[in-house]
């Protein structure tokens, strides 16, 4: 009785062994669909990557990054140039804008916004794009409108 049981067990193990060998054999080695390296641990590409087959670990990481970066690109809300989101700037809330801006547009916007907001440091009237820098001997900060500059000039020379 005991002998028979043992033999059964031996047969069972043999079968398993053959089965697993057959399975390995029928599968054959797998190669990465990108770099063609033999893969020990297969990684499934994501459907949206449009890759057939399996990937090695490295390529899987690369592709994930690539796809993530492609997804994380966006056009500048001002000039429409597509950039990485990490290279785009959030507009200031005062500008009342949607979307993101490239560095150039952000800078332009900021300068023009500052200009709009500039007031004469003497009379406080709003200045356009033309403003006057005080002479250094006047010891003044900020910029002046034309009237105040003329007055100051008349006073201090
Ligand atoms: Zn690979
Ligand atoms: Zn731009
Ligand atoms: Zn003024």
Describe what you observe in this structure.
This protein has 157 residues and is mainly α. The protein has three domains: 27-71, no CATH class; 72-117, no CATH class; 118-157, no CATH class. 42% of the residues lie in helices and 6% in strands. The strands form two sheets. Strands 1-2 form a two-stranded antiparallel sheet. Strand 1 (30-31) and strand 2 form a beta hairpin. The model has no long low-confidence stretch (mean pLDDT 83). Bound molecules: zinc ion (3 copies). One zinc ion binds at residues 120, 122-123, 125, 144-145, 147-148. One zinc ion (ZN) binds next to helix 4.
List the helices and strands and how they pair.
Layout: H1 2-27, E1 30-31, E2 38-39, H2 57-71, E3 73-75, E4 82-84, H3 103-116, H4 146-156
Antiparallel strand pairs: 1-2, 3-4
Bound molecules: zinc ion (ZN) (3 copies).
One zinc ion (ZN) binds next to helix 2.
Keywords:
two-stranded antiparallel sheet; binds zinc ion; 42% helix; 157 residues; 6% strand; 4 strands; 4 helices; rod-shaped; single chain; mainly alpha
Concise synopsis of the structure shown:
The chain is mainly alpha-helical and 157 residues long.
Bound molecules: zinc ion
Biggest sheet descriptor: 2 strands, antiparallel
The percent of residues in helical segments reads 40-55%
The chain-level structural class is mainly alpha
Count the E strands.
Answer: 4
SS element count, helices: 4
Rg (C-alpha, Å): 36 Å
The run of helices and strands is: HEEHEEHH
Shape: rod-shaped
**How many domain regions?**
3
Sheet with the most strands: spatial strand order: 1-2
Termini Cα gap? 124 Å
Mean pLDDT across residues: 83
Strand content: 5-15%
Please state the oligomeric state of the protein chains shown: single chain
List unreliable stretches of 5+ residues. Answer: none
């Amino acid at each position: 009785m005991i002998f028979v049981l043992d033999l059964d067990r031996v047969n069972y193990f043999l079968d398993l062994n053959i089965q697993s060998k057959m399975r390995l054999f029928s599968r054959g080695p797998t190669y990465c669909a990108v770099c063609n390296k033999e893969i020990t641990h297969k990684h499934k590409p994501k459907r949206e990557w449009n890759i057939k087959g399996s990937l090695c670990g490295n390529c899987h990481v690369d592709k994930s990054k690539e796809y993530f970066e492609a997804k994380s690109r966006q056009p500048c809300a001002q000039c429409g140039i597509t950039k990485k989101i990490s290279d785009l700037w959030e507009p200031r809330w005062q500008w009342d804008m949607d979307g993101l801006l490239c560095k150039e547009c952000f800078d332009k916007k900021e300068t023009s916004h500052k200009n709009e907001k500039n007031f004469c440091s003497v009379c406080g009237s709003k200045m356009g794009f033309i403003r006057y820098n005080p002479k250094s001997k006047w010891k003044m900060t900020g910029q002046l409108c034309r009237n105040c500059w003329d007055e100051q000039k008349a006073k201090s020379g």
